[in-house]
Amino acid sequence: MTDTLDIKITKTTHSRLNETDFDNLPFGKTFSDHMFMADYSDGEWKNFQIIPYGEIGLSPAISALHYGQAFFEGLKAYKHADGQVSVFRPDKNAIRFNKSAGRLCMPELPEEIFIQSIAAVVDADRDWVPSKANHALYIRPFMFATDPYLGVTPSATYKYMVLIGPVGPYFSKTLRVKIETHYTRAAEGGFGYAKAAGNYGGSMLPARKAAEEGFDQLIWTDAKDHQYIEEMGAANVMFVLDGKLITPSTRDTILDGVTRDTVLTLAREWGMPVEERRVSVAEILEGAKNGKLQDAFGAGTAATIAPVGSISRDGEEYFLVDPKEREFSQKVLRELDAIKYGRVTDTHGWNYMV
Ligand SMILES: *Cc1c(COP(=O)(O)O)cnc(C)c1O
């Protein structure tokens, strides 16, 4: 599947596979033996290579470090019971990759290069794909500006890279979440819809403050008056209110999640009423009070389906139904896993086999 892209492969002489503890995989700390790298200059992508994972030399003046011309993607590869490996919906990430690039004045990467680079590095390190339940290989493609020039202007040169590493479950418990009514993640006209590095730097202080107050996650609200729900941490957020699946519609301020799209697609196929629209904080808290809020969860590649246990606003905490008793999120999580790990027929063509 990697025959059209000319990739120079340099294998490591010392694999770290045997010294890696697959029973203890904190998210994002373990990297496989190899990584993918390509360069952009003179208006084209070149030097496609797979090299041993490790440090790379860069000028300290690169624009990525000073002005944030940097963005990323996140997707996963799964091992099926028969040993086959698939990547989940990489075509969707390829499209979003280029949306992020466009917003940051960075070059697009052809979809074939995105998908083939991922397939090639996953293939090189396929023994790193965990076979344990709820485990996967996390894939982190990213692009950053490399001109050594301190001018606030788009760089002429860039690097595109892919790192991969085995991961276990991201959240291990039901989340206590806080509705953020002071800080904002993104504003109209901004770049919240891009997976731009800067969006995450700005989210750390509010997240840390929430953690100090005992919360696991934040629910971001609109920048104007904090009346409408946008996302939960770095995941999309969904609710089942009175039998309907409700989620904020995508816009400038919201990341168009692949998990979000996958969940909405399955719900519609199951005949569940789905509403993508503005979701007010008031209706969600009202639903939590009167019992019409039957389910609430974060949806994302890293988090998968992360159940919300309680929602707080301005010191008042509203408790939701025990996650084990929630019909929708349980069912959708089961189905998602069954598709990704190849336990049911992939009728949507979502699994890209490596
Ligand atoms: C990555 C991300 C998501 C989830 O997107 P997926 O494609 O489902 O992984 C949602 N919101 C934000 C802010 C994100 O960064």
From TrEMBL:
Catalytic activity: L-leucine + 2-oxoglutarate = 4-methyl-2-oxopentanoate + L-glutamate; L-isoleucine + 2-oxoglutarate = (S)-3-methyl-2-oxopentanoate + L-glutamate; L-valine + 2-oxoglutarate = 3-methyl-2-oxobutanoate + L-glutamate
InterPro entries, per the entry: Aminotrans_IV, Aminotransferase-like, B_amino_transII, BCAT-like_C, BCAT-like_N, BCAT_family
Modified residues (N6-(pyridoxal phosphate)lysine): K195
Highest rank taxon of the organism: Bacteria
UniProt xrefs under CDD domains: BCAT_beta_family
Keyword Transferase among record annotations: yes
Cofactor requirement: pyridoxal 5'-phosphate
Gene3D superfamilies: 3.30.470.10, D-amino Acid Aminotransferase, subunit A, domain 2
EC identifiers of the protein: 2.6.1.42
GO molecular function: L-isoleucine-2-oxoglutarate transaminase activity; L-leucine-2-oxoglutarate transaminase activity; L-valine-2-oxoglutarate transaminase activity
Pathway: Amino-acid biosynthesis; L-isoleucine biosynthesis; L-isoleucine from 2-oxobutanoate: step 4/4; Amino-acid biosynthesis; L-valine biosynthesis; L-valine from pyruvate: step 4/4; Amino-acid biosynthesis; L-leucine biosynthesis; L-leucine from 3-methyl-2-oxobutanoate: step 4/4
Keyword Transferase: yes
Signal peptide: none
Pfam families given in the database record: Aminotran_4
Keywords, in A-Z order: Amino-acid biosynthesis, Aminotransferase, Branched-chain amino acid biosynthesis, Pyridoxal phosphate, Transferase
GO biological process: isoleucine biosynthetic process; L-leucine biosynthetic process; L-valine biosynthetic process
NCBIfam families noted in UniProt: ilvE_II (TIGR01123), PRK13357.1 (NF009897)
PANTHER family according to UniProt: BRANCHED-CHAIN-AMINO-ACID AMINOTRANSFERASE (PTHR11825:SF44), SUBGROUP IIII AMINOTRANSFERASE (PTHR11825)
Similarity remark: Belongs to the class-IV pyridoxal-phosphate-dependent aminotransferase family.
Free-text function comment from the UniProt entry: Acts on leucine, isoleucine and valine.
Protein name: branched-chain-amino-acid transaminase
Species in which this protein is naturally found: Mucilaginibacter ginsenosidivorans
Lineage: Bacteria, Pseudomonadati, Bacteroidota, Sphingobacteriia, Sphingobacteriales
